[in-house]
Amino acid sequence: MEKFTIAVLVHNRFGVLNRVTSMFRRRRFNIRALFVSEAASTEYSQIVLTFEGDVQAKEQLVNQLYKLIDVCAIKELDACELPAMPVISFD
């Protein structure tokens, strides 16, 4: 299994995050990391997801994500493009 990270640009609307993550659940992908923020315009949000799987399954997932009406663009990221995510200690 390989580790993949994708960035998904979506319309900033109610329920979009649920529809995107449900696509992962239905295809039995375990999301390892999830980061969501507004994009440059408040009309859009960006969702960065890290997950494991094989290349063929990842490509099928990306094709299915593009079928969601609120998905505008998808970009596969490599390690040097990952956004800095804070690590929080729960002591």
Q: How do you describe this structure in short?
A:
This protein is of the alpha+beta class.
Which tags fit this structure?
alpha+beta; 91 residues; 4-stranded antiparallel sheet; single chain; globular
CATH topology: Alpha-Beta Plaits
Kindly, what is the distance between the CA atoms of the first and last residues, rounded to a whole number of angstroms?
33 Å
Domain module count: 1
**Assigned CATH class:** Alpha Beta
Q: Give the biggest sheet.
A: 4 strands, antiparallel
Content of β-strand: 35-45%
- What structural class do you assign from the helix and strand content? alpha+beta
- Which second-level CATH architecture applies? 2-Layer Sandwich
Instruction: Indicate the low-confidence ranges by residue numbers.
Output: none
C-alpha Rg, in Å? Answer: 13 Å
Strand order of the largest sheet: 2-3-1-4
What's the name of the CATH homologous superfamily?
ACT domain
Question: Number of DSSP strands?
Answer: 4
